Amino acid sequence: MLFSSLIFLFRFMPIFLAVYIFVPPKFKNLVLFIGSVIFYAVGEIKYTALILAVIFFNYLLTRWMAQYEKGSAERTAVLILALGLDIGTLAIFKYAGFLGGIVNSISGLNLPVLDIALPLGISFYTFQIMSYVIDVYRGKIAPARNILKVGTYIVMFPQLIAGPIVIYSKVSKELDKRVLSMRGIEDGLKTFTLGLGSKVILANQLGNIWNSAQEAGFANISSFFAWIAVLSYTLQLYFDFNGYSLMAIGLGRMLGFHYPENFNYPYISSSVSEFWKRWHMTLTAWFRDYLYIPLGGNRRGIIRTLFNMFIVWVITGLWHGAAWNFVLWGIYHFCFLVMERLFFGRILNLSIVFSRIYTIVVVMCGWVLFATDSLEDAGNCLVRLFVPHAGTGLSSAGMSFALLIAGIFFSTPIFRKWYDRRSRSIIVTLILFVIFWASVFLLTSAVYNPFLYFRF
Fold it and tell me: Which residue of 211, 214, 217, 240 has the fewest C-beta atoms within 10 A of its own C-beta?
């Protein structure tokens, strides 16, 4: 069930909120858990048992782990068992086909390759449960005594399917006791509406430009059209994912939770390093805290630091998808991060204009690897970007340029600064009213309403 769907907006959300708000505080976690399971089952009923099993076994294993002293071999063994269960489950459902294809290519065999539908949100909820297990192992948190608390943490529907990735220690107190207020509900509804508008009014419409380029074939389009298409996808992905994150944060606020921000206007960055401090910030923080630092971070010399970075970025690419284009996308960003770390960062500091142009071009070219279905398509698109070619042109140029200008404007902090100063004003309320009903109108009249990060 998409947040940007009529069934969610006019059935699930109002019914759930009506029940949730009026039940006594001691029953709110139960209502949230049941409502979240229903939410997940509507979109992925066949894998509902899987997520419940993951919750159950990790709850038992963390309780078992806590019986042993920190640093003991027994505690470590239980950690390995729990992480093996979580990573193994993710690997079976997400990477079995990819790994099988590699084995066949290397061996020359024609072994059957598993083709399993990817459970919704598995990459996100696996990382959340792994962070919980690791933090219990480290002694940073005590394992929850109540399985309902762990279950509610994992399946909370606002961030279940696509984040932001929420760490247990950040919401543990709110899982025990949270305050619902009219101000919180109002602020949450406003944030949700901004996210809905980002998704439906901007992302969905920008996506049509990229789809036109795909349908025409990257080998056939003009270089100008290629740049317009890649720019449209660059903006579509941002408004699609940031819009979903804003809706999740807004829903969480209505329920009494404070989820972390996931984006901080990444396209105004002046380096690739800065970009990754602004884009999908909860994922970046997860890899830093649960992979990069445990590997040694930057504490063991430059060679080990670069090796650690390489491991992180290969896994980052694989986290996004089980295909070579995602692996290359991760390595691509690794190369630029290394270059900036070693010497190029000093050059970027000399000119803010050059550094921002450099960053957005690098990021856009990276999204080509991210967006295309094959390395051949990615190669054709990149060739069209940098080798002049007079091919198929852009249709509906006027509307496309208007969308791109709007997308560029709203990908900067200009509107948000104005909004924050006037968030309680009548004019903002009217704007949000228009955004909501314009989104509803587009949802009733359009069939194109994907969510790009559901792929991952």
Answer: 217
Beta-carbon neighbour count of residue 290 at 10 Å?
A: 15
For tokens 């803010």, what's the residue? 352
Cβ 263 vs Cβ 234: under 8 Å:
no
Listed in sequence order, the DSSP H helices in 48-146 are 48-65, 73-90, 96-107, 122-138
**Ramachandran category for residue 359: left, alpha or beta (phi over 0 → left; psi -120 to 50 → alpha):** alpha
Written as six digits, the tokens of 89 are: 């489950």
Distance CA 144, CA 438 (A): 43
Q: How far apart are CA 311 and CA 94, in angstroms?
A: 19
Burial class (CB in 10 A: 0-12, 13-18, 19+), 405: exposed
User: Which residues are marked as active site?
Assistant: 320
Calpha distance 297→295 (Å, rounded): 6
pLDDT of 401 > 80? The answer is yes
Q: Which pair of tokens denotes residue 280?
A: 């999908």
pLDDT in tens, 284-297: 999 999 999 999 98
Residue-wise pLDDT tens digits, 140-183: 999 999 999 999 999 999 998 887 999 999 999 999 999 899 99
Closest by Cα among 192, 205, 348 to 273? 348
- Give yes or no for a contact between 136 and 99, defined as CB atoms under 8 angstroms apart: no
d(CA 229, CA 344) in angstroms, rounded, equals 29
Structure tokens at 119: 């459970």
Instruction: Identify residue 249 by its one-letter amino acid code.
Output: I
Give yes or no for a contact between 245 and 194, defined as CB atoms under 8 angstroms apart: no
Determine the distance from the C-alpha atom of residue 41 to the mean position of all C-alpha atoms in its chain, rounded to a whole number: 21
Q: Which amino acid is at 16?
A: F
